Amino acid sequence: MIWNEEFETLPREALEALQFKRLKTTLERVYATVPFYKKKFDEVGFHPDKLKQLSDLKYVPFTTKQDLRDNYPFGLFAVPRDQVVRVHASSGTTGKPTVVGYTRRDISTWAELMARTFTAAGVKKGDILQNAYGYGLFTGGLGAHYGAEMIGATVIPISGGNSKRQVMLMKDFGSNAISCTPSYALSLYEAALEEGINVKELPLRVGIFGAEPWTNEMRREIEEKWGIDAIDIYGLSEVIGPGVSFECIEAKSGLHINEDHFLVEVIDPDTGEPLPYGEKGEIVFTSLTKEALPVIRYRTRDISRIIKEPCICGRTFVRMEKVTGRTDDMLIIRGVNLFPSQIESILIETKGVLPHYQIIVDRVNNLDQLEVLVEVSEEFFSDEIKVLQNLEHTIEKNIKDLIGITCKVRLVEPKTLERSEGKAKRVIDKRKL
Amino acid sequence: MKITQISVFIENKSGRLFEICDLLGKNNLNIRALSLADTSDFGILRLIVNDPEKAFTLLKQKGFTVGKTEVIAVEVPDVPGGLASVLNVLSANDVNVEYMYAFVEKSSDFAVMIFRFDEVDRALDALEKNGIKTIEGVRIYGI
């Protein structure tokens, strides 16, 4: 099923003409309204008038997450603040989050993109959707919510967590569809078993899973256990949130990028040179319609490949393969982005010195677990147990408060953490992705 | 009198306690008293040894996280209610005991207890005023 037949099946030529028109408008607008972009364009001698074809975009400088941080909180907004009807944010390295904004029209664009996503997954008017993405500053919950309402599904805005209640309502309300992270889908399965629920007898038909990388093996596991179709979706708050690209239930092979709203490029992460479709590289997006916070050549740090061959579903949008890696050290834990440097600054703030530490990520019972090992140096040591236990709890609490992830901090003896060639090994990811 | 206690951070792994005791023994350091406090992940070994400075330097050299703390060795009458009488004095003077442990050997008719206070001077003062004897370092290290 296709939500917006007109745009989603637009012939490539017409689509590219539309992209060019929208790109030009966007570049002109950010050049005129966002000092950051004007300065950046001027520095390399680029002017929006110079854009003669889509491929001229390669002359425009990239935008990075650091640029968003440097312009915290509203510095990159391209509209007056009173036009912004909503902000979302993701956690940041120094406790300052990355802030994104939406005008009323952005919110409705976003709802449409999520309506396309749900429709491609076979969700329709009359279905009951259990939305177990987190609500709040995180874009997942509200993004999915508005899209599901737009198609006329009955939304259960249950948010994440409280698995027992999730499976109870799933059974009592008769949810047909669920949206959450794929790892949470597996942990809900365990909860259903514990509650003595036969999941195969539930009317649940499809799951719309995203916010963290997952494999086709994991898809098979979820589909077999639950007896449902498992669909992958992709998005990032800097671009709009969930709904940037989505799989169709017909093919389940590659995620269709909403190309009428986002221009996609693949680049060599080291040189920044654009790569032809089909080659593996870093995915870069440029907003084509976003009003409040358009991003120009935003570097996602996600590694993937673009498939331009037509899909059996009839959509003309290109597809991106499931994301297979990152060009930076960002970890995604239970759908929350985490950079090791965030843990580092929390540790420094605790005692004024940086201890040796190691971040261990594992998936236990299908749920990501974060453990932070901290070597006890003299600055951290005390002869009193309560002081050391308080230290563990303080670090755990700061990580929870600033990053939003529950973790376990464990104090270890000096020189026990692995160092490779003298350089500390900061992250051990035991998850098999 | 204040005496110096050595504390060592140890993870709950088999053999760690042995390694420390073995190291001290091979370097002619005698353990006069010890206590081990632990949680599920880690423990703190507190030691009174005959040469605290030497033990501190040695353990540090061997890569352990070591601390020095001032504690007080108190003579507790070796009779029923002996410890209670000492604690009563402390309590009456509002002195808080962080932790305490017993010395293995006795000095005449007294048992010896090691006390760790948050306010050492106030504790000493209270004990002295109430006629409770504390033992000086030189004697303790050599008992």
TrEMBL record, chain A:
Pfam families: AMP-binding, AMP-binding_C_2. The keyword Ligase applies. It is an enzyme of class 6 (ligase). One of its GO terms (biological process) is phenylacetate catabolic process. Residues 79-286 form the AMP-dependent synthetase/ligase domain. Pathway: Aromatic compound metabolism; phenylacetate degradation. Keywords: Ligase, Nucleotide-binding. Its EC number is 6.2.1.30. GO terms for molecular function: nucleotide binding; phenylacetate-CoA ligase activity. Residues 335-431 form the AMP-dependent ligase C-terminal domain. It catalyses: 2-phenylacetate + ATP + CoA = phenylacetyl-CoA + AMP + diphosphate. Belongs to the phenylacetyl-CoA ligase family. Monomer. Catalyzes the activation of phenylacetic acid (PA) to phenylacetyl-CoA (PA-CoA). This is Phenylacetate-coenzyme A ligase. It comes from Calditerrivibrio nitroreducens.
UniProtKB/TrEMBL annotation, chain B:
Gene3D superfamilies: VC0802-like. It comes from Calditerrivibrio nitroreducens. This is Amino acid-binding protein. It comes from the Bacteria. InterPro entries: ACT-like_dom_sf, ACT_dom, ACT_dom_pair. Residues 71-143 form the ACT domain.
